[in-house]
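Tip: read the tokens left to right.
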């Protein structure tokens, strides 16, 4: 059975990190290596990660989530790569379903599932767009919902650190440009936690970076056509 490397980037995520790690350790699929990349946290995130003997911790100065994800990929040993934010969760069969799909479909480069937003205890106010998708399942173009073959990072590269909020958007765009084959499993494979520090944080920056990523894609296409 192929080894799956699960990369959890964290920056001051002590509040939810333990639950995220536990949701990986409780996966029905094995073998799995769990890599927590501590991106210069000043809280107890590093200590929480280190308390799990089966979890590998990488410490680095604060460089942003894209750099943390890249560090995880570069230090991974598995042939399959998965990502999980430190405040999100997986169902127990997430990896088993995706590994089985990739084994049965060798032509597919990565598989993605649906996402379900849930409100953290105490949250009563949140953005209207978040309200529309709260407690609903939908296909998630989110890193936490994918399982990817490691070799695709050699084809399209790692995450671009210049994007603070839209590194996933840029990566998905580059994957499509390169003809990377994606498949969808119509089942919830990611539980995204809505809490007071993520419910509206960085929306304008993400929108701005989304437009930058789209423009970069247009520029690349234009340069190829010249």
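Filled-in amino acids:
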């Amino acid at each position: 059975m192929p080894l799956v490397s699960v990369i959890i980037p964290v920056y001051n995520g002590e509040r939810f990190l333990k639950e995220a790690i536990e949701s990986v350790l409780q996966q029905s699929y094995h073998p799995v290596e769990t890599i927590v990349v501590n991106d210069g946290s000043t809280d107890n995130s590093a200590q929480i990660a280190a308390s799990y003997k089966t979890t590998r911790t990488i410490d680095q100065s604060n460089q942003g989530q894209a750099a943390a994800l890249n560090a995880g990929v570069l230090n991974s040993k598995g042939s399959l790569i998965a990502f999980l934010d430190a405040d999100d969760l997986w169902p127990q069969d997430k990896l088993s379903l995706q590994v089985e799909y990739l084994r049965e479909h060798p032509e597919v480069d990565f598989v993605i599932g649906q996402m379900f937003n849930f409100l953290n205890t105490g949250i009563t106010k949140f953005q209207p767009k978040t309200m529309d998708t709260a407690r609903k399942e939908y296909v998630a173009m989110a890193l936490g919902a994918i399982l990817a073959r490691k070799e695709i990072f050699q084809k399209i590269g790692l995450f671009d650190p210049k994007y603070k909020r839209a590194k996933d958007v840029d990566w998905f765009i580059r994957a499509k440009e390169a003809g990377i084959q994606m498949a969808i499993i119509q089942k919830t494979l990611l539980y995204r936690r809505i809490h007071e520090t993520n419910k509206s944080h960085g929306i304008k920056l993400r929108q701005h970076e989304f437009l930058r990523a789209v423009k970069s894609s247009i520029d690349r296409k234009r340069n190829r056509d010249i």
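The longest strand covers residues 182-194. Strands lie at 4-10, 32-39, 55-60, 80-83, 110-119, 137-139, 146-149, 182-194.
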